[in-house]
Amino acid sequence: MVSKTHLIYFSPTKTTKKIVEQIAAGLNAPVSEHYDLTQMEQGLDMKLDDGLAIIGIPVYAGRTPEIVLRRIQKLSATGIPVVLVALYGNRAFEDALVELRDVVVSKGFTVVAAGAFIGEHSYSTSKQPIAVNRPDMADLQKAKEFGTIIAKELQKQSGKATPEIPGDVPYKERAPLGGISPETDRELCTLCAICAKVCPTFIITVNSDVITDAKNCIMCCACVKYCPEKARELKHPMVEGRREMLIKNCSERKDPVFFYEPSLQ
Ligand SMILES: Cc1cc2nc3c(=O)[nH]c(=O)nc-3n(C[C@H](O)[C@H](O)[C@H](O)COP(=O)(O)O)c2cc1C
């Protein structure tokens, strides 16, 4: 039995978090520690030497977001098993999982399983929905089952083998972020400052106005999705174009995929 799970995730709009939690539920470990990197400006400075870790990231332009890499820079482990989770918006996860694998292996984790799951796209809006309401009940059920499989297989010695994970090395070129951010409609805004609170990069200041420092925006859209007045909107032409492309080419439902050593299957 897995004695303890360390749930480590970056999840501005909480789809990654939901999947990580479901996998943990399937593992059924007695103790679950949460490390939510989303609000951890200084990152996670810790060495893990027991239990099992689940590390979850959203896919940004086919890669592991740079902000995650910065926030796990001081994280290390003494060979403990880790399950990797990439959450993507129904387009593709490309090199995100292999990149995450390489990073965590260099930190002393042993990758025992990995999964790619689908979550509502950060750019999704009510007018232009993309993977809306994912993960849904079927996704959550699959995540839980995945956790149960991992728990069973870890009891076998072979459960420590690193699985084949799809993706290219070298990874695809990183798309630069920054300079584009959601805007506030002051007619609707009540200055409640929830946008500032949920922003993982702390770039929104609310006083008598809402000021967004766009150069450090990662376009995660937490401020858009959690605004109770629907006063925040990401309407830059580049994003509008991206939404149209996603609706045209990526509307067909994709399903979660799991990777673990063939000897475990
Ligand atoms: C800058 C950026 C780039 C993204 N790139 C991709 C991508 O390459 N492929 C994809 O399918 N989804 C992509 N997405 C969508 C996110 O992976 C998806 O919305 C994810 O569920 C968000 O996770 P969270 O809810 O934990 O924040 C991107 C989102 C953002 C903000």
* Hetero groups: flavin mononucleotide
Query: Can you tell me the CATH topology of the largest domain?
Result: Rossmann fold
Assign the CATH architecture of the largest domain: 3-Layer(aba) Sandwich
Shape: globular
**Biggest sheet, strands in spatial order?**
2-1-4-6-7-12
* Average predicted confidence as pLDDT: 95
> Rg, please?
19 Å
What's the CATH H-level superfamily name of the largest domain?
Flavodoxin domain
- According to DSSP, the number of beta strands is 12
Percentage of residues in DSSP E strands: 15-25%
Task: Compile the SSE list and pairings.
Blueprint: E1 4-9, H1 15-27, E2 31-36, E3 46-48, E4 52-58, H2 66-71, E5 75-77, E6 81-88, H3 96-106, E7 110-118, H4 137-154, E8 183-184, H5 194-198, E9 204-206, E10 210-212, H6 222-225, E11 232-233, H7 237-249, E12 257-260
Parallel strand pairs: 1-2, 1-4, 3-5, 4-6, 6-7
Antiparallel strand pairs: 7-12, 8-11, 9-10
This protein binds flavin mononucleotide.
Descriptive terms for the model:
12 strands, six-stranded mixed β-sheet, 2 domains, about 25% helix, 7 helices, about 20% strand, binds flavin mononucleotide, Alpha-Beta Plaits, alpha/beta
Question: Can you offer a commentary on this structure?
Answer:
By secondary structure, the chain is α/β, with parallel strands linked by helices. The chain folds into two domains: 182 residues, 3-Layer(aba) Sandwich (Rossmann fold); 53 residues, Alpha-Beta Plaits. 26% of the residues lie in helices and 21% in strands. It contains seven helices and twelve strands. It has a six-stranded mixed β-sheet, with helices on both faces. A two-stranded parallel sheet has the order 3-5. A two-stranded antiparallel sheet has the order 8-11. The two termini are 18 Å apart. The model has no long low-confidence stretch (mean pLDDT 95). Bound molecules: flavin mononucleotide (FMN). Flavin mononucleotide binds next to helix 1 and strand 6. The site of flavin mononucleotide (FMN) has 23 residues, from helix 1 and strand 6.
